[in-house]
Amino acid sequence: MLEAVPEIVSEIVQTLTAHLQSLGGPRDPFLASGAHQLTQHYIRSQLGLWGTVSAQSFESRGQEYYNWQMSIPGQQPHLAPFLVGAHYDTVPGSPGADDNASGVAVMLALAKLLSQQRPKRSIHFVAFDLEEYGLVGSTICAQSWRQAHKPLHLMLSLEMLGYFSSAPGSQQYPLDVLSRFYPDAGNFIALIGNEKTLAKMMALKRQLKQAGAPCQWLPVVNGGKQIPPTRYSDHAPFWDMGYAAMMVTDTAHLRNPYYHTASDTIETLNLERMASITLGLAAYLQAG
């Protein structure tokens, strides 16, 4: 797997920058439908460079919407696969650079890296729609996997991966008690997983740290219902369907002051840190 040397990091930064620039701008499916459709075309074309893209259609508010999917076969196809997902819609009026062009950009970069060096397990990449309207796309996806009795080694939700701050007090927590155990500066990537992911979170943390991305992890029980903010992304429907699932995040509104605003722009993101996260995720997914 690629190492976090300056040349590789620089190359991934360039890849992420190109994706972010193409994904930039409000992508609300109702008030910015044109940009929303262009985003879908871009995701389809980029995933299509590395495999066959399929659409999972579903209806909401009388309209048809789509999750876009592509799979990379593993060296050992009998093993339960990974599912790596990121939502591509935004709230009205926000360009959504961090929320969630950053997650989509990293997912697309991972598809490129892992198609070049075949992973141990198969990997399914899914771009979800209507996350901002109640996790609609990911709920449809999780239900379809459960109804088909498909096994899943781990679902990874890439949810806001670009905002970091070393300023004291820049990191908040959904429970005050957590501030006693975790840093008060928002300069790390967070892993939020259910009880089925304990060993997986520790393994992923090691890979992220080795790639130069400081990491903290938080296990939750009962589907995170006691800590509602841990459910605010596309992993939650997979928790509810009984799968091992994990959110990879910069913690969103608990850190990023531009969350869900017109100021959520590319200029606020740390692309070098995003590149390190990409490398760490790629190493973990490749090893299986």
Question: Could you explain the architecture of this structure?
Answer:
It is globular, with a radius of gyration of 17 Å. It contains 7 helices and 8 strands, in the order ααβββαβαββαβαβα. 35% of the residues lie in helices and 18% in strands. It starts with 5 loop residues before the first helix and ends with a helix. The chain is of the alpha/beta class and 288 residues long. The mean pLDDT is 96. An 8-stranded mixed β-sheet has the order 1-2-4-3-5-8-6-7, with helices on both faces. α5 (198-210) packs across α7 (271-287). The protein has a single domain (6-287), classed as Zn peptidases (Aminopeptidase), CATH 3.40.630.10. It has helices at residues 6-23, 33-47, 97-116, 136-147, 198-210, 236-240, 271-287; strands at 53-60, 63-72, 82-87, 123-128, 154-159, 189-194, 215-220, 245-249.
Keywords:
single chain, Aminopeptidase, 8-stranded mixed β-sheet, 7 helices, 8 strands, globular
Number of helices: 7
Main beta sheet strand tally, sense and closure: 8 strands, mixed
Task: Tell me the fraction of residues in β-strands, as a range.
Answer: 15-25%
Number of E-state strands:
8
Q: Walk across the major sheet and give the strand order.
A: 1-2-4-3-5-8-6-7
Quickly count the domains: 1
Write down the secondary-structure element order.
HHEEEHEHEEHEHEH
Uncertain runs are none
Level-1 CATH class name: Alpha Beta
Through-space gap between termini: 12 Å
Globally, the shape reads: globular
What is the CATH T-level topology? Answer: Aminopeptidase
Please identify, by name, the CATH architecture. 3-Layer(aba) Sandwich
Residue-averaged pLDDT: 96
Full CATH superfamily name: Zn peptidases
**How much helix is in the residues?**
25-40%
Radius of gyration, taken over Cα atoms and rounded to an integer in Å = 17 Å
The computed structural class is alpha/beta
